[in-house]
Specification:
96 residues; mainly beta; single chain; seven-stranded antiparallel β-sheet
């Protein structure tokens, strides 16, 4: 009997350069990984509440190198006033 493969995700926190327009809209421009690789966000296709367990924030559907990806902004606890939030992507791992 075969066991089902259960996909698990992990959050990979990344550096993101963003612009803010005059209305306060935050628009991510680039993603930089820990190893220094930087990728330009070519397009933002969608923006909505993240809807993830344990994540109060937003999900951006972006185009990077012609591929659709999800970029999440996790809002920080308001008691930490010096930090507004942080960005992450999800990596799917398969566990047997």
């Amino acid at each position: 009997m075969r066991r089902a493969v259960i996909p698990k995700t992990e959050r990979i926190y990344v550096k993101v350069s963003s612009d803010f327009d005059s209305t306060g809209y935050m628009q991510p421009k680039t993603i930089t990984w820990d190893d220094g690789r930087t990728f330009i966000i070519e397009e933002i296709k969608d923006f909505r509440p993240a809807g993830l367990t344990g994540c109060s924030g937003d999900c951006y559907t972006v185009i990077i190198q012609g591929q659709e990806k999800h970029l999440f902004f996790e809002r920080t606890d308001p008691s930490f006033s010096a930090r507004f939030g942080r960005w992450f992507v999800e990596r799917t791992n398969t566990a047997k």
